[in-house]
Amino acid sequence: MRTSRLAVALAAPALLIGLAACAPDTASEPSPAGTDTPAGCAPSGPISDAVTVTGDFDTEPKVDFNAPLSVSALQRTEVITGDGAEVQDGATAQIHFSVYNGSTGKSLDSTGYDAAQLFQATVDESALLPGLVKTIRCSTVGSRVVSVVPPADAFGDTGNDQLGIGAGETVVFVVDVVDVLPTQAEGDPSPLPDGFPAITWDADGKPSVTIPDAEPPADLKIATVITGSGPKVGDGDSVTVQYQGVNWTGGEVFDQSWGRGPATFTTDGVIAGFGKALVGQTVGSRVVVIIPPDQGYGPQGGNSSAGIAADDTLVFVVDILATASA
């Protein structure tokens, strides 16, 4: 199982965005007979209905279909219908899935079905393969969904050698929707300690940071302004967060996930001060950290692409949405 390979393959580069723009407008096409599909949700159809999927939710499925499959617009069928929250545009769903070549019937890859192998899927066709987005959109937590995806919503006329998809081939997904992440930490923030920037948050949780007219502290400073009730983040664990990074010098935002969807990384795969701010925190927490240069980009000589010099102090505001053990 190579989740990183899947993540790269299923991200939506410019080519896929262009293909999505040329894809048939499924919302304007009539749904297959016998379906009652809400607007904006991909309909079921005879081809997706004919894919046989057995096995319990959130375990490796057994999948069988008669290849080759061909559809002009994506069809999706719920094999198991969950009773949890509905996956809506802009949400980030935690999913497990298996992917197949619909033209050859070959099993191509899988996320795996351990808790640590959850794939974070943002419901945004500019960020993720349109066919996968349309598969999970409108699904509910606890559901297992099978979709048959036309090339225009998958890998088009180029295919994807990484996954074993040829030019113009159909893709089949079997997706288990395990959870939908909150969009932000929830609770009333407590006041920040002296020496921290002034911060306000909008209704969506996006922060606005005002750097004080003062020299930054020389040491790492961490403040937990909302304490979540979820599991604790361990050293080396995978963490899904919303974040914003501000340079103390000039007070400019140099990077943030707000506006594009949460980010997932391991606590030992980021700059030292950022990782230290997360380890020991609980899911649902909001954390503000001031990172001195020696625990930021100083050891790397700065980060010119982000406008960060080697002696710059950084401020991060982080909402911890999920974690998984390494």
Keywords:
6-stranded antiparallel sheet, Chitinase A, domain 3, elongated, mainly beta, 326 residues
Written account of the structure:
The protein is mainly beta. The protein has 2 domains: 178 residues, Roll (Chitinase A, domain 3), CATH 3.10.50.40; 127 residues, Chitinase A, domain 3. Helices cover 11% and strands 29% of the residues. It contains 5 helices and 16 strands. The strands form 4 sheets. Strands 3, 4, 5, 6, 7 and 8 form a 6-stranded antiparallel beta sheet that branches. Strands 11, 12, 13, 14, 15 and 16 form a 6-stranded antiparallel beta sheet that branches. A two-stranded antiparallel sheet has the order 1-2. A hairpin with a 7-residue loop joins strand 1 and strand 2. The relative contact order is 0.14. About 7% of the residues have low confidence.
CATH class of the largest domain: Alpha Beta
Q: What portion of residues is helical? A: 10-25%
Counting DSSP H or I runs of 4 or more residues, the number of helices is: 5
Nearest-integer average pLDDT? 89
Poorly predicted runs: 13-35
Approximately how much beta-strand content do the residues carry?
25-35%
Q: Which architecture of the largest domain would the CATH scheme give at its second level? A: Roll
